[in-house]
From TrEMBL:
UniProt cofactor(s): Mo-molybdopterin
Species of origin: Priestia endophytica DSM 13796
Name under which the protein is recorded: Mo-co oxidoreductase dimerisation domain-containing protein
Superkingdom field: Bacteria
Domain Oxidoreductase molybdopterin-binding: 45-218
Coiled-coil stretches noted in the UniProt entry, renumbered to this chain: none
Amino acid sequence: MRNCDSKKLRPNLIPKTLVPENQETPIHLVSGDIISDKLFYRRNHFPYPSFTSSFYFLPIEGQVHISKVFSLQEIYSMPAKTIKVVLECSGDKRELFKPKVYGEQWGKGAISQGIWKGVSLKTLLQYTGLLDNAKEIVFEGYDNGRRPDSNKLYNFSRSLPIEKALDPDTIIAYEYNNHPISFKHGFPLRLIVPGWYAMASVKWIKKIIIIDKEFKGPFQDIDYVYYPNQENDNGKVPVTTINVNSTIQYPLNMQLLHSGVYEIKGIAWTGEGQITMVEISIDGGQTWNKCKLTSSFEKHSWIRWNYTWNALKKGEYTIKSKAADSKGNVQPLEPIWNRKGYGYNAIDHIKVKIE
């Protein structure tokens, strides 16, 4: 059986921009369920922040019974929660939209997965309490800068509704893959919001503010919003839950292959429920066959899959993958086009030629 020898590969991140740093994971060239820190994709709106971590404290204020400032030592001493989570940029696969949309032209690698350890936000909030009028929780990061549409200085800030914030799996993380989170991924504390696109997982948390109204920051109310119309903002809705999706990792797109037996493989993931089926088509979508799911189900992680292909006839082939989840979501033939290019999840496809 032919396959790529992943043990010999030494892939690097694929750069998009350097300041701010935006680089994607070479998702087609990595194996396993855990992405190393060095190969975890990087998404930033601003240059890396500057602050003194040795004097780091985390304040929680606003609509609480008791405002409190937590030291790192206090947070480390609380009951810890460890979860494997897939984080996907909402702009993942943006370059595939037709017609094209403006924004970082991500390929298929603005997605990574690993093991995060921290304290549940619900646990942390037990020390402050929430007032009855609390509606949303705002997370402000240390990263800041000027947006293209304004000369005003902004910190990257996002909010969560109370219900999502109090989900036991929403954590304030301080470790990744059994090591302290690296600076480039949010050291010393990063919010992890399983099931939501990764813009919600705010890095370098500066403070947490509980508010009694809807948060209207630009990274909540302007960016990370689905705009279905090119001409106006009618029908806009916020970007939240990850769409069901899949990616073919091998073979590579436009690869030349000799006739033989090949293992087509990839990953599939979803924001809610679990992946229940992945299908593959070798003939451009005319017929479909079930793939073998090769990794066990874990609540917030991707599923690995493969399919054995007897590629004996010469010619060009369009291979497609389609995932479905337990909530009844199925990858569509075409993505739902939106002006900012979020949430692409159309059936994945590649082309290969058997010589």
